[in-house]
Amino acid sequence: MKLKKQIEANLRSFLSGNLKQNALRFLETLGYESDKKIDLQPNTAEGFKAFLKQNSEQLTNEGKAHLDEWETVDFLFQLTDEEISRTKSLFDTSKVDVSDKRIESYLFFAIKLKKAEYRRSELAEITREINRMFPMPVMILFQHGDTLTFSIIDRRLHKRDTTKDVLQKVTLIKDIRLENPHRAHVEILEDLALHNYDVSNFVELHNAWQKTLDTKELNKRFFQELANWYFWAVDNATFPADEEKDADIRNATNVIRLITRLMFVWFLKEKGLVSDKLFNEKELKTILRFKDDSAYYKAILQNLFFATLNSEMNTRKFIAENSGGRNSQHFVHNVFRYRQEFIKPEETIKELFEPIPFLNGGLFECLDKETEVDGTKCRVRVDGFSDHPKNVLEIPDELFFGSERQIELNEIYGTKNKRYKVRGLINILNSYKFTITENTPIEEEIALDPELLGKVFENLLANFNPETKTTARKQTGSFYTPREIVNYMVDESLLAYLKAKMQTETQGFAGFVAFGENQPTMFGNEARVQQKFEMPVSNNRWHGKDESLETALRNLFSYTEDKHQFNETETEILIKAIDNCKILDPACGSGAFPMGILHRLVHLLGKLDEANEKWREWQRLKAIKDTEEAYKIGDHKEREERLLEINDVFENNAS
Length: 655
Known about the structure:
Blueprint: H1 2-13, H2 19-29, H3 45-54, H4 62-65, E1 70-79, H5 81-85, E2 106-113, H6 120-132, E3 138-144, E4 147-157, E5 165-177, H7 183-191, H8 202-212, H9 215-236, H10 247-270, H11 281-284, H12 295-309, H13 345-353, E6 369-373, E7 376-380, H14 398-401, E8 405-407, H15 410-413, E9 420-422, H16 425-430, E10 443-445, H17 451-461, E11 464-465, E12 470-471, H18 472-476, H19 483-505, E13 511-515, E14 519-520, E15 527-528, E16 533-537, H20 546-557, H21 568-580, H22 592-608, H23 613-630, H24 636-653
Parallel strand pairs: 2-3, 5-10
Antiparallel strand pairs: 1-2, 3-4, 4-5, 6-7, 8-9, 11-12, 13-16, 14-15
Helix pairs in contact: 1-2, 1-7, 9-10, 9-17, 10-17, 19-20, 19-21, 19-22, 23-24
């Protein structure tokens, strides 16, 4: 707890004062310090370039380093085995195998950027460009606006050239708020403190960092907490029994639906589309009266799901007051309910619910319905969105904001004498950092990304079904493929596609070479007829070299810094093939495969056309051709709409 308080205090200090001194104090709090320091003079991008020049190095790509965005840059220190050994006993020694890595030391830099916000990819690019200049890994602390980002890169020795390193994945702890840091960020920084690691050299330290910053471990911990909560909720929630009579199945289905809806909302919150106040227990006490033990789910979440996200903006309102008899809006699901639970009903709707966008998908559609049985109309409650006194729906507030406690789950998990902890779902979600940007193989943020939605759904579907004694996902055929498998499927599919394009679209035929023309004999002018044949000659240098072509394509697909092996004509063929690529995923599910394809295509374009010149020119030519066709449309309105569409496509696709 003491270290957390120190971390929070150190973060606040960045709001004023000198970046270098603040950074040194902060790293010292985590246990990292060294006397091996250099003062860059001046501490600007130009000073950094001069420092590189002194060491016979220069930036290969100033654009990717975003030098024009640097306000200041400081070399903090170099951390070597000498510094790490000071924390160990004199008698502690350890031999380390460094055959697959060359980590002799760490360099720590601090860079202050001019703008308040930067994309993850921009910070990753800066990290890569700086790391290209040094034989050892460089850790960078970025300050941008009122936030910090820590950037760490993984490196390994080049398999064929041991004098080179391969720059691998960039990992970022991104957008750490200085004034009020997210709890998850503070805990991650606390976990990085040097005293947590029993290490004696920097290979061990680097491996320890990678383990701490492994998003797989983060996801695993989150899934375990969520699974424990799921079983707790299933035993303590009550849903209407109109449609599903089996209580176990009914509760399991509805709790899964609740989690899925809330997880989606959580990513909307991360994007700033839903107010944090709706998930802050302290703020909620100024919004709700909490007359009902299930006030939070009913008044906040149900109104958010059904009357807000499933209702168009500027049409949102409370259900009309009943002045006797059944209200005409009794079964209308896109109006607010539970007015009596709000301290200031109209003000709350206007401030917290009205700004939220309308989503026309089916996820937030209320499943309560009217149906007809044997000619008689009847109403079936599934979600139980009703403020009628006889509404049986109960999802206690404790399930959302309850403090940590132990519950019995040994029978469910098939364990013995193990203790399982649970806490409120909102408390769980608030303790993790979420990001709306999906992680990729070359850069990732230490946060839970949108792929989590599919994984959560799969894990919940896999839970034991008491009716069939099987997992629910076997019944539905629902499976969400792990990211590693998706990446493999993406690469193999695209590689086969591009290989075929290179073999068919390249000018593969230049003519024939003829052998065996008639020749005169030695003792006369008579021509002797000889066997004659012709050999086709290809100007496609990959003709008959399938393995070489595949090797070149795999090099293009790799995340190394090696240049691709294709000439100008071949590069244009590949870019056009990427532009014309169409993806069909008949079992789309969470969309992991098409999104994986998109990320990979962007990566390939970045290697084929770094300045984006060829891609933009190709899009320009397409737009011209489409525009010429559009002017042939007779109907004026249709023509104008088509021209606007072409312009939008060009602007969004050519940058």
